[in-house]
Design brief:
With 261 residues, the protein is mainly alpha-helical. It contains 8 helices and no strands. The longest helix has 50 residues. The N terminus is likely disordered.
Length: 261
C-alpha cells in the first residue's frame, strides 16, 4: 500500500508546501507557536530593537528624510501592477528564460543530457549553478521591489510608516537565516537527483552487462531526469512566491489604508 504524502497547512508558504508535499520536509506541528519560534531566533539586541519599533509613538515621529519627501506617491493599483509584472517576468525567467526587455539576465537550464562518463558526484553541478543564479536574480529584484513598496508606506506616515520601519527591521534580522534555509532546498533536490541517477546507472548496467559502464551502453532516453528538472523549476517558482509574501503584505496594508481616489 502506498504511503500518502504528508499534507502542508493551507496557510504555509508555497515553498514549504512544495517541500512537504514531496516528502522532503516534515509538516509543521499545529501546536508550534510562531511567536515563540521567532523569539528563539532573535538575540537580545534584536529583541530590544523590535520592541522599540512596536512601542514607538507614531504621532511624534521625526520628519521624513528629504529623499523620501521628494519621492512621488504611487497609487496602490500602480504598485500592484508593477508587482504582478515583475513576478511574471521572474517566473518566465525560471520556466523559459528571461523575457525580452525585462532587464533580467538570461539563465539557461542545463542541456537534458549528461557528459560521459557520468559521475554522480559532479553531475548535478550545472543544476546547482542554475538554481543559485535564479536565487541571486530573485534576491536582487525582490529586495529592490520590497524597498520601493516600503518607501510608499513611509511617505504616507502614521501607522504605515511604522509598518515600513518594522518590515525593515525584520528584513535585516531575518535575511541571514532566510538565506541559510533557502540554501538547504538545493541540497534536498540534489540528494534526490543523485539517488535517481545511481538507480538509473544501476539499471543501465544490469540491462547491458557486457558494456564498459554507462558510456558504452546504447543511447537511452533520460526520462528519469525530466521530473527532476521540472522539480527544480517548481521549487524556484515556489521560492519566488514565498519571497514575495512580505511585499504583498505591505501592499495589502497600503491598499487598505489608502482611500480610493
Amino acid at each position: 500500500m502506498t504511503r500518502p504524502l504528508p499534507r502542508a497547512h493551507f496557510n504555509s508558504s508555497p515553498l514549504v508546501r512544495f517541500l512537504t508535499e514531496n516528502a522532503m520536509l516534515e509538516p509543521a506541528q499545529e501546536t508550534e507557536d510562531v511567536g515563540q519560534k521567532l523569539g528563539d531566533w532573535l538575540n537580545f539586541r534584536q529583541a530590544i530593537h523590535l520592541q522599540g519599533v512596536l512601542q514607538a509613538d507614531v504621532s511624534s515621529a521625526d520628519p521624513l528624510p528629504a529623499h523620501i519627501q521628494r519621492a512621488s506617491p504611487i497609487s496602490p493599483a500602480a504598485l500592484a501592477n508593477h508587482v504582478d509584472k515583475l513576478r511574471a517576468q521572474l517566473a518566465e525567467s525560471i520556466t523559459q528564460g528571461a523575457p525580452a526587455g525585462s532587464g533580467l539576465a538570461l539563465i539557461q537550464m542545463p542541456a537534458a543530457d549528461l557528459d560521459e562518463p557520468v559521475d554522480p558526484k559532479t553531475a548535478f553541478a550545472p543544476y546547482r549553478r542554475f538554481h543559485a543564479a535564479h536565487q541571486r536574480q530573485m534576491e536582487t529584484s525582490l529586495r529592490s521591489l520590497r524597498a520601493s513598496v516600503r518607501l510608499q508606506l513611509t511617505k504616507r506616515g502614521g501607522r504605515l510608516q511604522q509598518l515600513a520601519t518594522l518590515d525593515t527591521a525584520f528584513e535585516n534580522i531575518l535575511s541571514e537565516r532566510e538565506a541559510l534555509l533557502l540554501g538547504k532546498v538545493i541540497k534536498m533536490l540534489e540528494k534526490r537527483f543523485v539517488q535517481a541517477l545511481k538507480l538509473h546507472l544501476k539499471q543501465q548496467n544490469e540491462t547491458h552487462p557486457d558494456t564498459d559502464g554507462p558510456s558504452g551502453a546504447p543511447q537511452q532516453t533520460l526520462s528519469w531526469l525530466m521530473p527532476h528538472r521540472q522539480a527544480l523549476r517548481t521549487a524556484l517558482l515556489a521560492e519566488l512566491d514565498t519571497r514575495l509574501q512580505p511585499t504583498l503584505g505591505l501592499l495589502e496594508a497600503l491598499t487598505s489604508e489608502t482611500p480610493d481616489t
